[in-house]
């Protein structure tokens, strides 16, 4: 049995940027405590663990502090790792609470990968949670885009979506990690998706991930799926797909694409490229 960790940056901007993820593949999964310890040692926002399961793979995701039900960038990294090990193809993944797929295709120095998210849905946000979230970042209602009201968006994990009305307000995002951790854990949130719509098909995003002990992720596929599902529910003029630029304000520019079918509640196809960091 091998516990070798492959390190890839998912949703890269060419050969730069992307969100680092650890990928652990073996014949059987370890105990949860062991996987949690490995994730903490790796130190990336997510490490994905996979083992053969019938004609697919059993998959679990761990941040440095907790297990999460679904992680988009780690799934993209896993798809890349499986393509490198087994050849280009479509891989079936059994998560704790869903079954999804990821495709991987080698593309020169990179691997192109695309996941189909768990089903999506959205709901209104409780006014108390909204006020706490705004206060966390020092925002007010006047900083929000009224065309994309605050909401809870789900796509394998739960996120607050806050759409800001200025790119400068997104750039200025600051918060206290411990305060964010308490808020997110109390509300059962994976991340808070802060977004700015440059136009109907291009979004800029930042994703605090304090629930996992991470101040901010440079690329968040789960939040991209949840946002895309919410935009569909909202009747946003997405034209079938949105592109998301994330990590720019961290100096780690990343690119994500979310393709949106017209079927309410259906999964979102989230794609990008992954680059190998080191073995």
Describe the structure.
- There is one protein chain.
- The mean pLDDT is 96.
- Strands 1-2-3-4-6-7-8-17 form an eight-stranded mixed β-barrel.
- The chain is globular, with a radius of gyration of 17 Å.
- The protein is α+β, with helices and mostly antiparallel strands and 279 residues long.
- It is 24% helix and 39% strand.
- It starts with a strand and ends with a strand.
- It has helices spanning 32-42, 72-86, 127-137, 167-171, 177-187, 221-234; strands at residues 5-10, 19-25, 46-53, 56-62, 67-68, 89-94, 99-107, 110-116, 121-124, 151-154, 158-163, 191-199, 202-209, 214-217, 241-246, 254-259, 269-278.
Question: Tags for this entry?
Answer:
single chain, 279 residues, alpha+beta, 8-stranded mixed β-barrel, 17 strands, 39% strand
Report a brief summary of the structure:
The chain is α+β, with helices and mostly antiparallel strands and 279 residues long.
The beta-strand count equals: 17
Fraction of residues in helices? Answer: 10-25%
Low-confidence stretches: none
Question: Kindly, what is the distance between the CA atoms of the first and last residues, rounded to a whole number of angstroms?
Answer: 16 Å
Radius of gyration: 17 Å
**Helix count, per DSSP?**
6
Q: Which term fits the overall shape?
A: globular
Oligomeric grouping of the chains: single chain
SS class: alpha+beta
Strand order in space, largest sheet:
1-2-3-4-6-7-8-17
The mean pLDDT is 96
- Biggest beta sheet attributes: 8 strands, mixed, barrel
**What's the SSE pattern?**
EEHEEEHEEEEHEEHHEEEHEEE
| Residue fraction in strands | 35-45%
């Amino acid at each position: 049995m091998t516990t070798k960790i492959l390190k890839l940056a998912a949703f890269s901007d060419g050969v730069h940027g992307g969100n680092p993820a650890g990928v652990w593949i073996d014949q059987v999964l370890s105990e949860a405590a062991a996987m949690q310890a490995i994730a903490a040692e790796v130190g990336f926002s997510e490490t994905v663990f996979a083992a053969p399961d019938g004609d697919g793979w059993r998959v679990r995701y761990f941040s440095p502090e907790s297990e999460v039900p679904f992680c988009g960038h780690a799934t993209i990294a896993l798809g890349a790792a499986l393509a490198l090990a087994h050849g280009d193809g479509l891989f079936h993944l059994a998560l704790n609470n869903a079954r999804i797929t990821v495709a991987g295709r080698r593309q020169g120095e990179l691997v192109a990968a695309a996941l189909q998210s768990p089903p999506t849905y959205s709901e209104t946000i409780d006014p108390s949670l909204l006020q706490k979230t705004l206060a966390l970042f020092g925002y007010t209602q006047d900083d929000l885009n009224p065309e994309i009201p605050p909401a809870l968006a789900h796509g394998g994990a739960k996120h607050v979506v806050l759409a800001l009305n200025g790119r400068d307000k997104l750039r200025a995002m600051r918060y206290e990690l411990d305060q964010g951790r308490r808020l997110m854990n109390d509300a059962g949130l994976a991340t808070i998706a802060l977004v700015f719509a440059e136009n109907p098909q291009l979004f800029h995003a930042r994703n605090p991930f304090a629930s996992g002990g991470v101040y901010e992720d440079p690329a968040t596929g789960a939040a991209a799926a949840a946002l895309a599902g919410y935009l569909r529910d909202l009747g946003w003029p997405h034209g079938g797909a949105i592109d998301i630029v994330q990590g720019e304000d961290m100096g780690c520019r990343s690119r994500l694409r979310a393709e949106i079918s017209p079927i309410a509640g259906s999964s979102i196809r989230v794609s990008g490229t992954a680059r190998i960091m080191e073995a």
